[in-house]
């Protein structure tokens, strides 16, 4: 990890490509999608960074333009990305239809066979990443990748 930006908090989880309908359009009405990258644990790192708490996010992305764009999106928000690894697999995707008034939002997940799902024991150097870290954050869907 970069010692200049040694994080106080490290988060670990999948970041996915989010394709959302513009405004409040339904999936059946959308002619285009808005691209962002999102994941619950990464969102925690971004929020903590906004509060001035140095944070890092660890995940696995595909080694292609989408994976590198996702890494850049975290870096732009100040999150340390030195623990991110890359592989040959694909990026998980989810589609978001924003709700309107009484109509709830809808989400369709397509995360099967993602790079994150293929993390193998020993790929992440946890001893280095967690050195001097005060807090480690992950969620229930992620715990199996820690075994």
UniProtKB/TrEMBL annotation:
<dbReference type="InterPro" id="IPR011611">
    <property type="entry name" value="PfkB_dom"/>
</dbReference>
<feature type="domain" description="Carbohydrate kinase PfkB">
    <location>
        <begin position="8"/>
        <end position="129"/>
    </location>
</feature>
<keyword id="KW-0418">Kinase</keyword>
<keyword id="KW-0808">Transferase</keyword>
<dbReference type="Pfam" id="PF00294">
    <property type="entry name" value="PfkB"/>
</dbReference>
<protein>
    <recommendedName>
        <fullName>Carbohydrate kinase PfkB domain-containing protein</fullName>
    </recommendedName>
</protein>
<dbReference type="InterPro" id="IPR029056">
    <property type="entry name" value="Ribokinase-like"/>
</dbReference>
<comment type="similarity">
    <text>Belongs to the carbohydrate kinase PfkB family.</text>
</comment>
<dbReference type="InterPro" id="IPR052700">
    <property type="entry name" value="Carb_kinase_PfkB-like"/>
</dbReference>
